[in-house]
Amino acid sequence: MNILVTGANGFVGAALVPKLIEAGHHVTGLVRSKKGKRSTSHLKWIEGDLLIPDSLPDLESIDKAYYLVHGLKDESGIFEYHEALAAVHFINWVRPHSPNIIYLGGLAAKGEHLSPHLRSRQLTGGILGASGFSVTEFRASIILGEGSLSFEMIKALAERLPFRPELSLLKQGCQPLALSDLLKYLLAACEYSKKNHRIIEIGGPSVSTYGELLDLYSELSGLKRIRLKLPEVESKVIMKALDYAIPEYANAGKKLTESLGHTTIVTDDSAQKIFPDIQPMELKTAMEMARSASKSHYAHLWERDFFKRLLSDKILTQSGLLSPELLKSLERVGKLKDLLTRK
């Protein structure tokens, strides 16, 4: 089949394209820049931006189209609008070919007041579903794999913080899925054809909390972290703390953090019925695969005068987040090496 992959440079798209080629498909990958990209007999790179319709080239015949575009890194403050606009432009762009569309969205409990991130994921799915095309919308929770934003945030926090924070925000349920299992679903969707808009919830076999994911990563990495209960503070304070804890992912990470207040758990068995041959791996195995493959490195926060920087931030010092207990522990970070090995 002739298959279009948007977001072909992203975490999921970059992993999916080789799998589609291995399956014998001819792939057209949309990227914002073709610099460094080389086309082959089964792979053609095209350049364009879904927010700029005039930049999109004419398409040759396509049978399927994967919509993997995500605006988490959008710093404009109106990323929800941009997400919706990109979906509309995509529909208008591919309409002459009427392809079956496969979209990766986000899990969220029904009837909740959703975060902007989850709201935009479901709005995008609704826009694609209203196109009149056949649309398969997968809704997933955290994807565990090398380069996954969710996984890298877990890794960075587990490795950088000298303690494991206890916070209500980390107690919501989620249902992580390994990248390799996600790819199985996306590939199987090539052979699945159903008219109209079908939503399929996918996840691994285990339900976890975000705090338990930090614990699991630390356990597999041989890290021993004392638990430290943090006071409940406004979300803006948590967002500010992220600027210090994970500056590499501060913008996108904040959007994901806003979604931590929602459970992201599979509520129906449609995936098992439609794709019975796909049996997702256990959480511990998925985390270990991601951990073993990950090449990122996160320096300890206290190696960069971290404590002094925290105390200079009025939002944090006046919020109550920096409790006497937490301050005392942080003061000891630079003096007591055994803090990292205490149970």
CATH superfamily of the domain at 2-145 and 176-205 and 265-275: NAD(P)-binding Rossmann-like Domain
**Lateral arrangement of strands in the main beta sheet:** 3-2-1-4-5-6-11
Helical proportion?
25-40%
Per DSSP E runs of 2 or more residues, the count of β-strands stands at: 13
- Low confidence ranges: 334-343
User: How can the largest sheet be summarized?
Assistant: 7 strands, parallel
Strand proportion: 15-25%
Instruction: Please give the CATH architecture of the domain at 2-145 and 176-205 and 265-275.
Output: 3-Layer(aba) Sandwich
Named CATH topology of the domain at 2-145 and 176-205 and 265-275 = Rossmann fold
Return the structural class: alpha/beta
Q: Compute the gyration radius: what is it?
A: 21 Å
What's the level 1 CATH class of the domain at 2-145 and 176-205 and 265-275?
Alpha Beta
How would you sum up the global shape? globular
Order of H and E elements: EHEEEHEHEEHEEEHEEHEHHHHHHH
Oligomer: single chain
For the record, give the distance between the C-alpha atoms at the N and C termini, rounded to a whole number. Answer: 55 Å
Number of helices: 13
In short:
This protein has 343 residues and is α/β, with parallel strands linked by helices. It has 13 helices and 13 strands. It has helices at 11-22, 79-94, 116-129, 149-160, 179-188, 210-221, 235-245, 250-258, 270-274, 283-293, 306-311, 314-319, 324-333; strands at 2-6, 26-31, 43-47, 64-67, 100-106, 135-140, 143-144, 163-166, 173-174, 177-178, 197-202, 208-209, 226-229.
Characterise the protein shown here.
The structure is a single chain. By secondary structure, the chain is an alpha/beta fold. It has a domain at 2-145 and 176-205 and 265-275: NAD(P)-binding Rossmann-like Domain (Rossmann fold), CATH 3.40.50. Helices cover 39% and strands 16% of the residues. The protein is built from 13 helices and 13 strands. It has a seven-stranded parallel sheet with strand order 3-2-1-4-5-6-11, with helices on both faces. α1 links the parallel β1 and β2. α1 crosses α5 (179-188), α4 (149-160) crosses α6 and α7 (235-245) runs antiparallel to α8 (250-258). The termini are far apart.
